[in-house]
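I am writing to request your help with a piece of structural work I have in hand. What I wish to show you is a protein chain and, alongside it, a tokenised description of its three-dimensional fold. Could you please explain, in whatever detail you think fit, how the structure tokens follow from the sequence? You will find the record immediately after this paragraph.
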Amino acid sequence: MTDQPEKLDLRSHDIAADKQAALRAAFPEVFTEGGKIDFERLKLALGETIDPGKERYGMNWPGKADCLKTIQQPSMATLIPVKEESEAWDTTENLIIEGDNLEVLKLLQKSYLGRVKMIYIDPPYNTGNDFIYPDNYSESLDTYLRYTGQVDSDGRKYSSNTEADGRFHSKWLNMMYPRLYLARNLLRENGLLFVSVDDNEVSNLRKILDEIFGEENFVDSIIWKKRYGGGAKEKYLVTLHEYILVYARSKDSIDNIYVPLSQAAIERYYKNQDEHFEQRGPFRTHPLESMRSFEERPNLRFAVTAPDGKEVWPKRQWRWSQERMFSELKAGHIHFSNDRDGEWVLSSKQYLRDEDGQRETKFFSVIDDIYSQHGTNETIELFGDAQTFPFAKPTKLIEKLLQIGTVPDENEIVLDFFAGSGTTAHSIQSLNNEDGGNRRYLLVQLPEPTGREDFPHITNITKERVRRVIKKMNDEEAGNLALKNSEKKQDRGFKVFKLQSSNFKTWNADVAKEPKALTQQLEMHVRHIVEGRTPEDLLYEILLKSGFPPTTPIETLTLAGQTVFSIADGAMLICLEKKLSPEVIKEMANRKPERVVCLDEGFAGNDQLKTNAVQTMKTKGVTSFRTV
């Protein structure tokens, strides 16, 4: 610390600075005296791994360079708490954030960096219909705050992106790329990303995800059969499916993926029992005769002795080699049965996997038992009609993905930054209720106008849907004494925050060098809190910009007659008093927090008090004392 407290950085996380720091750690010799990167030195350091050619394999499109600039531009926005629209504010760890997801993702970089276990998004499919984002896709907070009637200053719809536009695919990529890039930063090392998409952009999405995540971290492409049959309107083939692309932050960090078996699937295992049942449990069988599609190999034709001593030959050939066959036979892993003609049939045994009492199996890459109509039915059940939010994804579909991407009882965070009607939150609440899990959700949704009087914006639907789901669960629990008295209580609530400009006015270095303009800047510097903002608004911005999630526990203290907020059991103290006393400074320092933040206005121009405060904090071992 110096003799003056440092200023709290009101910008979001600096992505470019992180990359430079990583490069400096690996190649300190490539930095010049002024801290710039000498690319000639970098080329020498990397040797033959540098590719000097102009023609390289990769994905490029108009606007990609601007995407990277957009990513590197920090946000000066904040999230304003809205308690009156929240549920169980004091206890919940779930979040619903209303705002542009690009700006919000930037704001979450400090507090959620490497903390999210799973991301699921259902972004616009770019079908040629409207989707809501400004035409240049480099929108800023100002763009969002001007965004009311969905038209720009020239009367053009922000959302239009038709195939007649020469940059139809480029615009979609420019919208998606920075959001996916920022989202990756939030994932844990063993985190997974799931993205719903259809044929319009699946090939482009694969390429940008390969670039952002690394193609070695591609896990699979899930095929979702979304409807039962076809319709008369299809001109060519009847399209029944969509895709869900799955990527890992680091595939080496994820374990084998198992999901719980359904009761019907478990019962199929119990159809087979043998002398090993007590020790090994039930099993399924798989024929050991090879299919006709297998390459013909004479060494896979040999006799196996059946329980009655008869030699059994394959009609064509076995799936296993002779060595493996007799090894598995000796271990009791081969099941003998008779077909309708009384002939012996050999099958391998697949035992029921039982991990900590949980019957599990590997997940198949095709989902063919959940349909779009199920999502429509859920909307009708909750709102009374299908038009409140048409084409919502079914909760059972998202629940399947949650079983792949999360563990029930580890407080894992699930992010959805194209939240729509709130299906992800609904799915998490339902799955937690079913398996006793405590997954948490973080939803982000743009307040797109709907043209309805009851739900004027999509975010109204999002919040109301989750409220109704929570109420239904609470009502069911109230009528069930066993559930009501259960020790494990579910988190059935959410905190609402809305994207807004910073609570603090910042110095504008570009202001005209005129007396009147400079006077206004100086006045703003003295009275730098935006009018109408509450102490709670300020508190949550400081929390966010200091790297704490908005769900962090906050305790209100009274020290030396002044209000002080204790963050995360005293790890940080925040005092927003506009006239600080030496006594409150001393009391805060005596608690030995790691960090202290005060309003600069609180020192009322008293430099001596500010200097003494710095020394007091330093004496007590406070590592960071900042003002804002």
User: Anything to note?
Assistant: DSSP finds 20 helices and 24 strands in the chain.
